[in-house]
Amino acid sequence: MNSKERVLTAFEQQVPDRVPRWCGASPEFWEKAKNELNLDDEGLRIRFGDDFRRVVAGYEDDNLTSATGSYISPFGIEREGIGYGQPTHHPLAKGSLKDIHEYPWPDPEKVNITNLRKDAEEHYENYAILGGDWSPFWHDMIDLFGMEALFIKMYMEPEIVKVAFDYVADYYFSVNQRIFSEAADLIDIFFIGNDFGSQSGSLIDDDLFRQYIFSDLKRLVDLGHDYKLKVMLHCCGGFRELIPAMIEIGMDGLHAIQPSCAGMNLKELKSDFGKKILFNGCIDSQSVLIEGTPELVRSKTIETIEIMKPGGRFVAGASHDYILEETPVVNILTMFDTIQASGKY
After folding, report:
1. Which of 321, 175, 192, 201 is nearest to 250 (CA)?
2. Of 110, 124, 261, 323, most Cβ neighbours within 10 A?
3. Residue 323, beta-bridge partner list
4. Total tally of structural domains belonging to the chain
């Protein structure tokens, strides 16, 4: 099997030739690894054995960087700090329903889709292609309202929250419609990201999830399925209590499955949900890949594969979409080489 066949077989609850490999990394780690191994971008992906390639639409809006160089989200939220930073203000924290309707919501037409076909065609025959917008509507709601204010409004002013969620989700629905109309025939997996979990468990309980998030997340999943795509959600933290709802929505895969978080015991997840949804990741980033020795990485990778491999529906990789700069390159090489050696069916 080539990489595309291997990944798509795993998504169909069939057994591929071996466990597929996934690599998502921070720019800082990526540059460090390229320098240490003297490889270019594609050479590094091949060395790690990554079975995926990703295509991303850009933005035509010049206003997504502030005068000070800070990142500004499409929803007008300036963020400062490491990476995408933290929001400097929450414009809808005290917003009324009128404020919600009058807010300057972003224009989906500002997303630049002209590169997608060319980028996807380069790898389409051999690799599983990830596409679509990240669509972090939960995070955008937190930015717009502030987390504390958002939760208070969920109980005290539910109509305001529901209308705002729909505005944010409408934007991403339209953006993804444009992306898929342009290049869905060259995309295999619609990859979206919303972190509903924390180290100690879900940030939002099942009742609130179903009241405020379920329908908009389902709209995105249904959109991907309308274009014959698999849909995979990146979700950090412990979110076990939300997995049944995600399966009900029709989600095909979950990434990145952090076993160190509350409720994310791998044996239990595989036993309870492994025949209903694909798990991607599962090899602990924090205490194993960052802090561990190559010997610990090897043993924990083998242990994880033995738990998650049976029956398919498993992609192996770090339990984080962003392998951090402080992660030793030798540990990532050890992880991927061990997946290759121990992941054969």
Report:
1. 192
2. 323
3. 25
4. 1
**Residue located via tokens 């180290």:** 199
Is 118 domain-assigned?
yes
Establish if 289 belongs to a structural domain: no
Which CATH number belongs to the domain containing residue 104 in this structure?
3.20.20.210
Sign of dihedral through CA atoms 156, 239, 336, 334? positive
User: Is 176 in a helix, a strand, or coil?
Assistant: helix
Condensed to tens digits (0 to 9), the pLDDT of residues 270-295 reads: 999 999 999 999 999 999 999 999 99
Enumerate long-range contacts of 88-94, CB under 8 Å, 24 or more apart.
90/143, 90/144, 90/145, 90/146, 90/149, 91/144, 92/144, 92/145, 92/164, 93/145, 93/146, 93/149, 94/149
Which residues are within 8 A (CB) of 200 and not within 5 positions of it... i.e. 6 or more apart? 238, 261, 262
Q: Could you tell me if residue 205 is inside a domain?
A: yes
Please state whether beta strands 201-202 and 197-198 pair in parallel, antiparallel, or not at all (unpaired): antiparallel
Q: What is the pTM of this model?
A: 0.96
Domain encompassing residue 232: 52-281+296-309
